[in-house]
Specification:
The complex is a heterodimer of chains A (745) and B (201).
Chain A (H helix, E strand, L loop, with lengths): L18 H5 L15 E7 L5 E7 L1 H5 L3 E5 L34 E2 L5 E7 L2 H8 L3 E6 L6 H4 L7 E8 L10 E9 L11 E8 L2 E6 L4 H12 L6 E4 L16 H12 L3 E4 L15 E9 L5 E13 L10 H5 L6 E10 L10 H21 L3 H7 L17 H12 L12 E2 L2 E13 L5 E8 L4 E4 L9 H13 L6 E4 L16 H27 L11 E4 L2 E4 L5 E3 H8 L3 E8 L12 E12 L6 E11 L6 H20 L5 E2 L4 E2 L17 E6 L23 H13 L20
Parallel strand pairs in A: 1-12, 10-11, 14-15, 19-20, 26-29
Antiparallel strand pairs in A: 1-5, 2-4, 2-6, 3-5, 7-15, 8-13, 9-10, 9-12, 13-14, 16-17, 17-25, 18-19, 18-24, 21-22, 22-23, 25-26, 27-28
Chain B lengths: L11 H13 L22 E7 L2 E7 L5 H8 L18 E4 L2 E4 L11 E4 L12 H8 L9 H13 L6 H8 L9 H14 L4
Parallel strand pairs in B: 1-5
Antiparallel strand pairs in B: 1-2, 3-4, 3-5
Classes of the chains: A alpha+beta (745), B alpha+beta (201).
Chain lengths: 745, 201
């Protein structure tokens, strides 16, 4: 166990440190930075799914008022990172990953940018877009996942895993086997992607971008354009949501840099809402086949988990769909198989919970089905197969308080009112159902650097090159610092969103609080050590006191007995210093990285009402419980869990990209067509945390919770619907029609 | 194949797709260039607009195609009002026009001649936040903050227009404002608190 663990005596929660700016409209998001003489760049996008552009007529667009240029494959300046052949590429470059915008005349998916139109105003740019005319040679294409996946020759990159005997579930006295599918879902953060690029010299530029990682965007740009890292400054003051789609750079980034260079003028590239469906990733379409078998006591005898998810034709993307089946529950016989299906669509990417959320929908629903077959309470089934160790690598979990989550959730949702036989409970004529499911995700800790400047007036400035897409990183970091230093949060400023600051982690995979929080904890403890040393060295009355007998509190350095006191002001004066300026790097992984498996866990409980004639599904109540170690900021952690519930409701009930496979295009690329949860879809939700520190993961005992807030929700909802109706929907989203009711209401 | 940089010799996946293309290509698959008569945009004469924004009267000359949202964000620097879809479907751009909530993305700026606009920047009195802003802060009614301005403008309209008899009524009124981070419950909590406080907002 780590020495410093229990020393973190958290202060009371306060409002978000950046909250006042957010509620008063002062916070600046990428597209909102005012840059003089800016040119607006909008993409002209393909109207075919695959083929070659024979001719692109830009003459009319160029003649339109205010149009500055139309950049496309014929006139695009060369980009070093666009060269595939490493031998031909300059040394300080890496190949751009993904589709190379403005590079060639190939069309790989419907809606692919084929040109960037630049104009002096948004109005002029919008008016001229339609004047760019493309002539295509159309090639055959395939966008239909459900059809293509049936042809095994089209599957690629198959990875298999086996422990014990394959397909053992079929030998079990009780088993279920089912197919589960989830359509493409799109992150759709409220802020649309945008990039502003400003060249300040031949090899120096500043970029404002929507990014979950200022440092990673900096590296992407420096390596794509072959310029030194230090000459690329990436600024991301605020991120208006992202959920994974700002983990990597998309075509808007190189396009803005290319255009700003060509025009010798700052350029702002803006995406539209429909383009948010095709250009910045999405959760891939997936199909899973899961079999689980048990003996009469519920002991799992076999799990088989097969999965296929789509990728693009030009890039592979895979995620952890089958991971959870391998490690969470005690089971000797597990086999998994996961293949990719390339289609003529754009590349998917991580979306909240990523593959684990997809896999958990299948696995957790299958367990609910097995419990039903066993006539066993689904919570009992999970407790029966509860594992203290990670079943895949056999390492003990550093902490796993799932059973506490079960107990709280059961009591709060009213689990005792659940009938083992579906469709038996009614309220006001509506069918009542209860369901639950588990979420689990790796508790990651990466390396993180932070700089602290502690001033003689007792104020503290912390700096790290991270960005915050909403969970409240500056608030949590401020709270850790205030708690360690036992000082007012008002005197702390956490600076982020600038690649010039010490390298911080990319905000994703539930790792920020664990990684950066450890660095902040470390640096604040170092400040305390430094202050104690200064006191002993420079303050005469402290000469005979040991470091252990000194504490820092409320701008005072004092002996624990209270007899000796000196103000910071005086101490700094005696020491002839104006501040303490430190930079530390906290390394990745916990102190005992090879001995423990570190994960965060959640259990979600749902009560639904279903109208017996119309099939209308009314989610009545959700209880979301989490084991994410010590909770740093209850206020923002609770909000993150509430957000996960909303996302889960979207996955379960409405989110679905719809296609016209005759043209290969998405036909519901708007908030009108793609239904995300709205106020009226959200039930009363209770959030509860175990809030016990993980003794091994890091010095603060905190684990991430961005993913577990979401993982498992869809299975909990579908299980509740089954409990209400006796009908199992394995194909998301759940609709009254899929329950066998004639019309949606 | 045409491409912008000639130093690239491998491009294996592109070569492959081109070969497949040659094989499959038939005349019926050749897309014809769309032959609609193209009306060229003409230079646009600017038009006069008198508009009050957050109690300040402005006499402007603007491109008549400008939306109220783009006028605010791109030309006047009121970036507190957000762009979320430009189709009137998400509520991020909601402002008050003569006190009524309006999706500014689908309102032409010129149609607001002689009207008074309130944006989120116009709610606070100096350093003193508006009660709804305070309630949003207190209840942590946002995460990323991007939909927040629109939510607050709608929330004020919700209370002023009296749609606060129940949580369900609040939710119905607010359902034009999407929050992708999922702060809905906390938003309703904030609105409920302001509504029950009976203060005039």
């Amino acid at each position: 166990m780590l020495d410093s663990l229990h020393s973190l005596n958290l202060l009371a929660d306060e409002e978000r440190v950046d909250g006042a700016d957010k509620v008063s409209g002062k916070s600046k998001y990428t597209a909102e930075h005012i840059i003089p003489n800016i040119a607006y760049g909008l993409f002209v996008c393909s109207t075919i799914a695959k083929g070659t552009i024979k001719k692109l007529d830009t003459s009319k667009a160029l003649a339109a008022p205010g149009v500055l240029d139309v950049i496309y494959y014929e006139n695009c300046p060369s980009v070093p990172g666009y060269i595939s052949d490493a031998a031909l590429r300059p040394k300080n470059t890496s190949e751009w990953k993904g589709f190379k915008v403005l590079y060639d005349n190939q069309v790989r998916f419907f809606g692919q940018p084929i040109a960037l139109l630049l104009a002096d105003s948004l109005e002029n740019a919008n008016a001229a877009l339609r004047l760019v005319k493309a002539e295509y040679e159309v090639a055959p294409f395939e966008t239909d996942f459900n059809k293509a996946r049936l042809d095994a020759t089209k599957l690629t990159n198959t990875q298999v895993y086996k422990r014990g005997q394959e397909k053992m579930f079929k030998e079990a006295p009780f088993f279920v086997e089912g197919e589960y599918s989830i359509p493409i879902e799109v992150h759709n953060p409220m802020e649309m992607h945008a990039t502003i690029a400003i060249w300040e010299g031949d090899d120096k530029l500043t970029v404002y971008d929507k990014s979950q990682g200022p440092k990673s965007t900096q590296f992407t740009i420096s390596r794509t354009f072959g310029i030194p890292d230090k000459n690329v400054r990436v600024i991301v003051e605020n991120v208006g949501g992202a959920f994974g789609n700002a983990l990597r750079s998309w075509p808007n980034v190189p396009a803005a840099c290319i255009a700003a260079k060509k025009l010798n003028r700052p350029v702002k590239v803006l995406l539209t809402r429909p383009q948010m469906f095709t250009l910045v990733g999405y959760r891939p379409h997936s199909w899973q086949k899961i079999g689980v078998g048990a003996d009469a006591t519920g002991k799992l005898l076999g799990i088989s988990h097969e999965a296929i998810s789509n990728t693009s034709r030009y890039e592979d993307f895979r995620e952890g769909i089958v991971n959870v089946s391998k490690f969470l529950y005690t089971c000797e016989n597990v086999d998994t198989k996961y293949s990719l299906l390339p289609l003529d669509v754009s590349t998917p990417t991580w979306m909240r919970g990523p593959g684990e959320a997809t896999g958990s929908f299948g696995l957790e629903t299958a367990l609910d089905e097995l419990a039903h077959k066993l006539k066993m309470d689904p919570i009992e089934l999970r407790i029966k197969n509860f594992s203290e160790i990670n079943q895949e690598n056999k390492m003990p979990f550093s902490a796993n308080f799932l059973k506490d989550c079960y107990q709280y959730g059961m009591d709060k949702i009213g689990w005792k009112n659940r009938s083992m036989i579906p469709g038996k409970v009614k309220e006001n004529g509506w069918l009542v159902g209860y369901g639950m499911a588990v979420g689990v995700f790796g508790a990651n800790k990466g390396s993180a650097s932070v700089r602290a400047v502690f001033n003689k007036d007792g104020s503290l400035v912390l700096e790290s090159a991270v960005s915050d897409m909403g969970p409240g990183t500056p608030t949590a970091m401020t709270k850790i610092a205030a708690s360690v230093l036992q000082m007012s949060a008002q005197k702390i400023k956490f600076k982020l969103g600038d690649s010039d600051l010490p390298p911080g982690p990319t905000q994703g995979g539930s790792g920020t609080t664990s990684s950066l929080g450890s660095a902040v904890d470390l640096i604040c403890n170092n400040i305390i050590k430094e202050l104690k040393k200064l006191a002993i060295q420079f303050a005469p009355s402290f000469k005979a006191i040991t470091e252990d007998a000194i504490e820092i509190k409320n701008d005072l350095v004092q002996s624990k007995t209270g007899t000796e006191k000196i103000s910071l002001q005086e101490l700094f004066q005696l020491a002839g210093k104006s501040n303490i300026d430190l930079t530390v790097t906290s390394t990745g992984n916990g102190a005992q990285p090879l001995k423990y498996a570190t994960n965060s866990f959640s259990a979600h409980f749902v009560k639904v009402l279903v109208h017996p004639q119309k099939g209308t599904i009314d989610i009545q109540h959700i209880v979301s419980t989490g084991d994410a170690g010590k909770i740093i900021s209850e206020n923002t952690a609770r909000s993150q869990m509430l957000g996960g519930v909303v996302g889960g409701i979207g996955m379960a009930m409405s989110e679905q990209v719809e296609w016209d496979h005759t043209s290969g295009q998405i036909i519901n690329a708007s908030f009108g067509g793609y239904q995300v949860p709205r106020h009226k879809n959200i039930p009363n939700t209770d959030v509860w945390f175990v809030n016990k520190p993980d003794p091994y993961i890091n010095s603060i005992g905190a684990k991430g919770l961005g993913e577990i807030a979401f993982i498992g929700l869809a299975a909990a909802i579908s299980s509740a619907v089954f409990n209400a109706t006796g009908k199992r929907v394995r194909d998301l989203p759940i609709t009254p029609q899929k329950l066998g009711f004639k019309a949606a209401v | 194949m045409k491409r912008c940089y000639q130093g690239d010799s491998r491009r294996s996946f592109l070569v492959k797709s081109s070969a497949a293309l040659a094989f499959y290509l038939t005349p019926s698959l050749l897309a014809k260039a769309v032959n609609v008569s193209t009306v060229m945009p003409q230079p646009i004469a600017k038009e006069k607009l008198k508009i009050t924004i957050n109690n300040k009267v402005l006499d402007l000359e603007i491109d008549p195609r400008t939306s109220l949202l783009n006028l605010l964000r791109e030309q006047l620097g009121f970036t507190g009002t957000k762009k979320g879809c430009e189709m009137g479907q998400c509520g991020a751009c909601i402002v008050h026009v003569d006190g009524k909530k309006t999706n500014s993305c689908i309102s032409l700026a010129l149609s607001n001649n002689n009207k008074s606009i309130t944006t989120v920047e116009g709610l606070a009195k100096g350093e003193e936040l508006h009660p709804m802003q305070k309630a949003f802060l207190k209840h942590d009614s946002f995460q990323c903050g991007y939909c927040t301005s629109g939510q607050i403008m709608s929330a004020i309209a919700c209370v002023r227009e009296g749609h606060t008899k129940s949580r369900s009524e609040i939710k119905d009124f607010m359902s034009g404002n999407i929050c992708r981070c999922g702060a809905y419950q906390n938003i309703v909590d904030a609105i409920t608190e302001v509504a029950t406080s009976k203060q005039k907002i």
